[in-house]
Design goal:
By secondary structure, this protein is of the alpha+beta class. Helix content is 44%, strand content 16%. The protein has one domain. It contains 6 helices and 3 strands. The chain binds zinc ion.
């Protein structure tokens, strides 16, 4: 099953469960039961404020977030579902840092918890470049259910790829 490529690093028994969820067409019900509604963060300013609030709470001593946007489809296998860029530029005598977050367009119509997990992931990269222990520890600090939500995020991408994303209709 092609979709299982997103779950290769999970244990075999979990992969088997995921495979049957997809094969038996139960994926949509899984989402309908667990996350009945989609988020309301389509507006760029609302989205920016949402991210800034999380950042202010958990990552106080990091530079200001410059921009957050939904951009076009990115390949989950190559990178991640979002990107974070960090540029430095001279502003007078001061070196100013500038942080941008770009989120995969597929998350424009998605459950809030899942979008939040992706935002937490990208924010955690402000402090840790690699996906190491310290990185995931910070993710879990910002979102205690992070690991489950990352799994659901991967399942959500499958839902969207199979054209079953019902959040687009609501
Ligand atoms: Zn990452």
């Amino acid at each position: 099953m092609q979709q299982l490529k997103y779950f290769q690093h999970y244990p075999d028994n979990l992969q088997a469960q995921i495979a049957s969820l997809i094969k038996e067409h139960k994926l949509q019900n899984y989402f309908k039961n667990k996350y009945p509604c989609g988020h309301q963060l389509q507006n760029q300013q609302v989205l920016y404020q949402y991210c800034t609030d999380i950042k202010q709470r958990f990552l106080k001593n990091t530079p200001r977030l410059n921009n957050v946007s939904f951009t076009k489809h990115t390949d989950m296998m190559k990178g991640t579902l979002g990107t974070h860029t960090h540029k430095q530029h001279r502003h007078g005598q001061k070196l100013k840092a500038r942080y941008d977050i770009a989120l995969n367009n597929q998350l424009k119509y998605a459950p809030e918890a899942i979008l939040r997990a992706l935002i937490v992931h990208e924010l955690a990269h402000f402090k840790h470049a690699e996906h190491d222990k310290a990185f995931y520890k910070l993710c879990c600090n910002m979102e205690p259910d992070y690991h489950q939500l990352e799994l659901d995020l991967r399942l959500f991408i499958v839902l969207d790829e199979l054209a079953l994303n019902f959040y687009k209709l609501s």
